[in-house]
Amino acid sequence: MTKSLTYGAAFADVYDEWYRDDAETAATVRALTELVSHIATPRVLELGAGTGRLAIPLAAALAAGVVVALDESPEMLQILRSHIAHADSSVGNVTVVEVNMADLAALSTHGATAGGVDLGRAAEHHAVLHCVEHLKGEVVAVDRSGVIDLAALEETLSRVAARGDHTSVVSVMAVNNEVGSVTPLRDVARIVRRLAPQAVLHTDGVQAVCWLDVRDVVLVTDVATFSAHKFGGPKGAGVMVVKSGTSLEPLIMGGGQERDRRSGTHNVAGIVATAAALRATAEVREAEVRRVASLKSHLVATVLGALDDVMETVPGAASVPGVAHLCIGGVESEALLFLLDEAGVCASAASACASGALETSHVLHAMGVDARLARGALRLSFGHTTTQADVEHAAHAIIAAVRRLRK
Q: Which of 242, 272, 310, 317 is most buried, judged by most C-beta within 10 A?
């Protein structure tokens, strides 16, 4: 492993100190934590034993946007795969590969296609839904909560088989990125195994890691994909868990990295930070779910108690703690978001990656939400940095903004 690094001036002194004197490790870690505390989960710094002394500075450097160069030895990569595989004690008999998130939907949806039909639900993220539409696949309806309609899934799979076709891929997200509804993946898997046993069952698990036991996601699917930045890791890195025996055609060819699934130079620093973030998330998940669920419940109750003509889009336990979605009558999302931004509240009308879009969400349309309410959609995210004070401030800002717009 080489110590060759390129880094910004703000990071240089701290990094040099790390190597000069091990006795100053504690001070160094505190400095690194302060450096990235507003960029990534601080516990990404604490990867633990097994990856060597580079682990902490690499994770921090990557989170801070520092360019890091080091040797991608097979031994290092195997250690990191092991960290990712066991960070959640959930992987079992699967292969773990590190991939750029831009490739995940294509690898799972396009790469696995063998001349058959691809299925995705109507409320999927566009990263998957657009792949299905591009391949002229089948889009399956969802229910009022944004969960895939299991009867519609059965009907679609049966119809494809009846016309002499076969289903090659079924892609259903574990947690909806916009409204937070949770998919009953075990029920989906039973239907797919019975009616389309040859199909690859893929789940977009990007929104699941902080809130659900990942074992319930990976053990019933053939391919599960996760994005590191959703659980405190770096942007541009992710994990694809592939069940043993699942054949995927590579999207990117070349040097044969990642067991020939995705060629290209390994992003070792990204893998280090991803492993660290996944482990930290698994360790605190149970407590964080309870804490954040309480915060979300308080915010929603405060808003619903103060305003009429407001609907919690997916009520209570049917959605994960990290997403609160409201549909508010008598206001337009664009005007509401402007006022909230002035009040220092970060929110969106749809998912964060569609925050600049002004049209009604395709998810709400698929769920059958009345257009009058959908025009006032409001999505709020909760996470490890969210405090009671944040929730109080946001709730009162929402109430004040809605009252102002309704005058």
A: 272
